Amino acid sequence: MTTAYHEWGRVDADGTVYVRTADGERVIGSWQAGSPEEALVFYQRKYEALETEVVLLEQRIAATDMPPAQAAATVQRLVQSITGANALGDLDGLRARLERLTEDVGQRREEAKAARENARVQARDIKERIVTEAEQIAAEATHWKSSGERMRELLEEWKAAPHAERSAEAALWKRLSAARNAFTKRRKAYFATLEAEREDVKARKEKLVADAEALSSSTDWGSTTSAFRQLMSQWKAAGRADRDTEAELWKRFRGAQDKFFNARSEVFSAKDAALRDHAEAKQQLLESAQALLPVTDIRAAKSALRGIQERWEQVGAVPREAREHLESGLRRVEEAVRKAEETQWRRSNPEALARAEGTVAQLRSTIAQLEAQLASANERGDASAVSSAEEALTARRAWLEEAEHTLAEFSG
User: Fold this and answer.
1) Region of residue 183 (phi > 0: left; psi between -120 and 50: alpha; otherwise: beta)
2) How far apart are CA 293 and CA 333, in angstroms?
3) In angstroms, how far is CA 151 from the centroid of its own chain?
């Protein structure tokens, strides 16, 4: 057998196979089964198998989320396999590649550790928020139904949240349990108090119902109506009993109210019918009074009006909406008769006639004087005097017209 050489070793003439490393040559086997070239091929394949494992590990670490602990164990196993491996090839290069993988795995281990720590912090923050809200509900909540539902939701959120560091999670769970217990105690205490309050409300409303039923047959419409208003105010201020009791008591209370007010409505309806009849009678009297106008015979008009007024008072009350129309209509007739009487008196008063005649004569004399002054001012061309005279004449002529009208009434 002859010596055969390889890039990373050789086969000696006696069949001894060597591999070359940084530490020098190392015997990896003895070959007697064939030619030296076959030995080189055989041990090179062993190297290629190791290299394939390294390549696959590099690819797994680079392309997957292989756990750092598993990766480190695999790297360590391959390092042991390569150290002292009976293979022909760049064993130092494989170890260098594994060392780089060891550094990568270490970095990933630190990253994973940091990620775990960050996850624990986030989990602690999430559960801290859950606990804080639960404690706030336990201390402040008064809407028991919605708050109870929220407490149950917070418990489910706790269960779904990731785990925090064990000691922190234990402390937070203790606070959450305390908050849930405090909320339950407050809710039980509230409903116990509420039950007592409802019993008190029930007793008060039973008394109001009894009072209402006692008033339901009253015919004292005014005072009983006020009494029912007071009972209703007391009912609203009394609070609420439990649902079934409240419904039953309200049914009785409302029934007593309806009995009284229905009876009152029947009576008032009859009164309203009578009032409408009164209004119709007064409308006829008003039409009779209006037929007296215009007044031509004072004595006859006054006599007829007195009779109408007497019958008017005998008719009685009318509906409120008709009252103003009827009353104002009669007042207008009464005023017209009164004015006619005053006018007749003035006409028969000699002193008043003399005053009216004197006023007319005086105004006519004044107007004649002013007309003379106006003519003189025009002749002089005194514009100021003309304006003053015209203004005075306008006023006196208006007064004269009114005075002559008054005098005509006396003379009519």
Assistant:
1) alpha
2) 7
3) 25
Closest by CA position to 225, among listed 271, 270, 268: 268
The H or E element that residue 4 is part of is strand 4-6
Q: In this structure, what DSSP letter does residue 11 have?
A: E
Q: Work out the number of other CB atoms within 10 angstroms of the CB of residue 99.
A: 12
CB 65, CB 27: distance < 8 Å: no
Quote the CA–CA distance of 31 and 45 in Å, as a whole number.
15
CB 21 within 8 Å of CB 1: no
Output the CA torsion 333→334→340→341 (10° steps).
Answer: 160
Rg for the chain, CA atoms, rounded: 62
Distance separating alpha carbons of residues 248 and 193, to the nearest angstrom = 22
**Alpha carbon separation from 389 to 247, 371, 396 (Å, rounded):** 92, 8, 11
Which token pair is 113? Answer: 């550790």
DSSP classification of residue 15: S
Q: Is the peptide bond before 294 cis (omega within 30 degrees of 0)?
A: yes
* Of 169, 242, 147, 167, residue with least CA distance to 200: 242
73-104 per-position pLDDT tens digit: 888 999 998 988 999 999 999 999 998 888 88
Beta bridge pairs of residue 25:
20
3-class SS of residue 30: strand
Q: Please report, for residues 37, 232, 236, 243, 405, the alpha-carbon distance to residue 42 in angstroms, rounded to integers and kept in the order given.
A: 9, 110, 104, 95, 156
HEC secondary structure over 212-268: HHHHCCCCCHHHHHHHHHHHHHHHHHCCCCCHHHHHHHHHHHHHHHHHHHHHHHHHH
Angle at CA of residue 10, ends 4 and 16, nearest 5°: 95
At 347 the pLDDT is 66
CA–CA gap between residue 321 and residue 294 (Å, rounded):
28
pLDDT digits (tens, 9 = 90+) for 9-58: 999 988 999 999 988 999 999 998 888 889 999 999 999 999 999 999 88
Helix H or strand E segment including 120? helix 91-140
